Each structure stands twice: as C-alpha cells, then as structure tokens.
Amino acid sequence: MHSTEIKNNIYWVGAVDWSVRDFHGYSTPEGSTYNAYLVKDEKTALFDTVKKPFAGELVLRISELVDPQSIDYIVVNHVELDHTGALPEVVDLVRPEKIICSSQGKKALLAHFHREDWPYEVVKTGDEISIGSRTIRFIETRMLHWPDSMFSYIPEDRLLISQDGFGQHWATSERFDDEVDASELMYQARKYYANILLPYSPMVQRLLADVKGQGLEIDMIAPDHGLIWRSGVDTIISAWDEWSRQVTRDKAIVVYDTMWQSTHAMAKAVAEGLQAEGMCVKVMSLEACHRSDVVTELLNARAVVLGSSTLNNNMLPRMADLICYMKGLRPAPKVAAAFGSYGWGGEAVKLINAAFEEMKFGIADPGVKANYVPTSDDLARCVELGRMVARAATASPDAE
Ligand code: FEO
C-alpha cells in the first residue's frame, strides 16, 4: 500500500494494522490504522508517527515522497505509543530541526523516551508556525485523549489533523469516509467514542464550542485512526456533539451472565417487560458480547439492567469485569436495576446495586433474585421489573 495524497502536497503515510484485536481492553475485531501525515512545503513536516512494529512501513511511505532526512519538523500531536512507538527510530533517521509538541507533550515524551537531547519546541493553543505557503496553528486538547494531546490546523487547506479525535479503529484499504459503508463507519466511530472518549465528554463539549467560537473553516478532518473525513465533516462533528451530550433514546440494555441458564431466563423476562412498555431493548449475554460492545450500546441507552448469578458470594467474573470497565468510562447517570439467580448467599444483586450507586445511577427497584431455578412467579416478577424500569426511564428527563 502506497502513500495517499489527501490534499495538494499533503500525504497519508501511516500504517494499516489488520491484525490488532485488543486496544487496552477495547476489542478491535476490524483492526485499526495508525495515521501519520506528511506536508511538503518550504519546510517539510511530519505529523505523528506509528506503532513501533510499523516504523519500517512509515519510513518506506515517506521515502516514496521525500528523502526522510529532508523532514524539518516532527509534530507530536499525541504521545500514546500507537503514535510515538516509531518516534525514536524516525528521529534518529531524520534528525529533525524541531520536535513540536505541547508542554505536557514534552513531559510525556521525556517520561517515555528519556531523550533530553531532542530538539523540543513547545507550543500552546493559538501558536502558529509558518512552513512556507502554509501555517500550522495548534489547539491543545488536554485529556482528548491524554494530557499531552493537541490538534494541528492548517487554515490554507482547511485541514484539521486531529490525532485520536474523530477516529475509528477500523483497518481498511480505503482512506476516505466516502469510500466505505457509511453505517459501518458511524458504528466504528461511535464505538471509538464510547470506549475512549466517553469519560472526557464535558471537555469534548468545551472543545467543540471552542472550535465553533474560533470560526475554524474545516473541510477535512484527518484523525490518527481510521478513515479521513472529507464528505462527512459536519456529520462526525454533530455526532460527537450528540455523543458528548450523552443524548439517550427510549432504549434499555439488559446485560447478564449466567451459570445454569436461570439468569438467562430472567434476562429474557426482564426484556419482555421493557418491550411491553415500548422500550427498544438490546439483550447482551457476556458470554457472547465483549465489554466494549456493551458500552457502545450503553452510550445512548436510558436504562441499564444487569443480571448475574451469585458465585462464591460474589457476582460472576465477567460481570465484575464489565462493571470495572464501565465505572472507568464514567457514563452519565442511567435508570438501573439488577437481577440474578442464587443457591444460598445471593450477593450478586446487592453488589451490582452498590456499583450502580457508585456510578450515581438511579435504581428503579431493589431487584429480583430467584433461588436456583426461577419459578413462573419469579419470571413474572422479572417482567414487572422490566416494566418498572421502562416506566422510570420514560419518565426521566434526558441526560442533556
Ligand atoms: Fe491512538 Fe490515545 O492513542
């Protein structure tokens, strides 16, 4: 795969990782890309690099266009290793005049690579550097995704180079949004937002207001992962606005794990009750669904009902894993309830409720427990639990 010209004299020179299947706990069944961009002008600038094993590919793609040693500036928009793993090798080869980064970026680069001798140039929001016929304007985007993160904006090309922002983990041979299936693209973008950016939603809101306030004209967004937005710039910006406001729908997710199918039967009964009250329902068994797919569905759900059998006075391990992951992503409050089967202790429901309280979810009902195998009365209580959750959810104002 060759480099791709995305604007006049601006090139994608990154790498496609067809095989990666896990990104610190986020399942990536479609792989990912590590996008890096080269701008040829009076000065030549490289924006970000790639994950370490792909350094050779990056250098090869750059070499199709310029002698790597003619690169003057390396802009580090984000220090996470999927974008800087190849940096030491590239710096040794290129010997750049400047490595441009935020102040937090410099700190993080030093902490990762321990190279005091690199020619750092620290920039902050509003700073501009001329590279000839073009200007690079920097916008710090702290915590999106790390404290070091920043965007680079090239006004002459109306191009926003956005590191993790607006990205998707999706390996494709195509480079642009209008070359792939639109609904798959938006699904991957939503999954990326839910699993990576959700905890920083208030900051995303401030950033979007800031970008609007500055009146930046953008006709292309080039993220560090996935497809480049050229036809869907407005679509992805309004999607990010909706996701960061955590707008919900009349939708509930019922997520469960089961030992001997009792909690499975209860989950189906809860879903029946939710549906009977007009809610859209997604039932997700943790045996079949990855935690990162669950939080993708959680993003616009108004209610969440979790079920687990009790095992050794605890909830089942896959439910504990999901709750740990969910807590870290700090979703906006949801309407919630718990259920589960048990043999003697029955602690799972109590423990799930404690987790709901910690996440400030509104518990619609103390929950339903069934001893060993649910009776028809137990299942009727589960249906009623679903109905109760649905009524509470439809009565509750949106998270907006
Ligand atoms: Fe793609 Fe936060 O790194």
Instruction: Report helical residue fraction.
Output: 25-40%
Strand count, sense and barrel status of the largest sheet are: 7 strands, mixed
Distance between the termini: 44 Å
Shape: elongated
Total count of helical runs of at least 4 residues: 12
The total strand number stands at: 24
The percent range for strand residues is 15-25%
Low-pLDDT parts are: none
Bound molecules: MU-OXO-diiron
**Helix-and-strand structural type:** alpha/beta
What does this structure look like?
The chain starts with a strand and ends in a 5-residue tail after the last helix. The chain contains 12 helices and 24 strands. The chain has 400 residues and is of the alpha/beta class. The structure holds MU-OXO-diiron (FEO).
